[in-house]
Design goal:
The protein is α/β, with parallel strands linked by helices and 254 residues long. The protein is 48% helix and 15% strand. The protein has one domain. It binds uridine-5'-diphosphate.
């Protein structure tokens, strides 16, 4: 299984295998350094970034295309404490967290006006708002915006639009699986040096979803706040329970 994993761009020994997925042992600062290097390096070459969370693991058990997209990613970070716990259980390693929101915010803070960002995803109007807010707060250049509710038959057209925008950074926020598969399949057309699948980040930047409170983020347990307070997320509880069962079963199996 591990043979199909793409080589890690990080020093050897820093890429783990969790189930059949890669996971890079990388701090937020190291990830930001690496992405900064990719974004401004010549010649430009596309790189995909996955911020792994428990739901990705559960969902990908029945979606081989999603597994393949994650296996081909150039960087896979631990989005939250669930992945940190699983890596401890199954690999005996401490993996630092580098959540999607922190990566995106960190890149905008570090690179501000030199950074061209394409905002792809969320409901119509939300990406525009996110782009306006990011331009105001961080001074980033808006390479383009597009909502995330288009038919798969439109994928090529949207990828061309992104490719023509000259973005350094593409935020693809179209839901778990869809966003990673899209980034991986279209990476050469998208062309931007960094393509991040980043779930609800456009909503948070737009202010249409709240960021979990700082204390939950510090402890890495923001999912408790998200699931607990948002009724629409209650359906996720069984998936998180399934994740715990999967990890424990895998540990027993070994
Ligand atoms: N989203 C999208 N297109 C879709 C499904 C979702 O653009 O077909 C957006 C959604 O509006 C939100 C983000 O993707 O901004 C994450 O959605 P959700 O929380 O449902 O996804 P998950 O947390 O399961 O990845």
């Amino acid at each position: 299984m591990t043979a199909s994993l793409s080589p890690s761009p990080l020093p050897s020994g820093t890429r783990l295998t969790l189930f059949d997925l890669p996971l890079d042992v990388v701090t937020l600062e190291q990830a930001l350094d690496l992405l900064g290097e990719w974004m401004f390096r010549r010649p430009r070459a596309p790189h995909t970034v996955v911020t792994l969370n428990p739901e990705f693991i559960v969902q990908s058990r029945t979606q081989p295309e999603f597994v393949a997209a994650m296996q081909s990613a150039d960087l896979v970070t631990a989005d939250g404490v669930g992945i940190v716990w699983a890596a401890r259980q199954l690999c005996g390693r401490e993996v630092p967290r580098a959540p999607g929101y922190d990566l995106v915010r960190g890149l905008m803070e570090r690179h501000g006006p030199e950074l061209r960002v394409f905002f792809l995803g969320a409901k119509p109007g939300v990406a525009e708002q996110a782009a306006q807010n990011a331009a105001r707060e961080f001074g980033v250049q808006v390479a383009g915006v597009h909502h995330g509710y288009f038919d798969p038959s439109e994928d090529g057209r949207v990828a061309d639009l992104v490719g023509a925008s000259g973005a350094h950074l593409v935020l693809t926020a179209m839901g778990a699986g869809r966003q990673e598969i899209f980034n991986q399949y279209w990476r050469q057309v998208l062309g931007a040096p960094v393509l991040i699948g980043c779930g609800g980040v456009i909503d948070v930047l737009a202010g249409t979803a709240d960021l979990a409170p700082a204390w939950t983020r510090k402890l890495g347990v923001e999912f408790i706040w998200r699931v607990g307070l948002d009724r629409r997320r209650w359906h996720r509880v069984p998936r998180l329970a399934q994740f715990v069962r999967l990890v424990l079963a895998e540990r027993r199996r070994r």
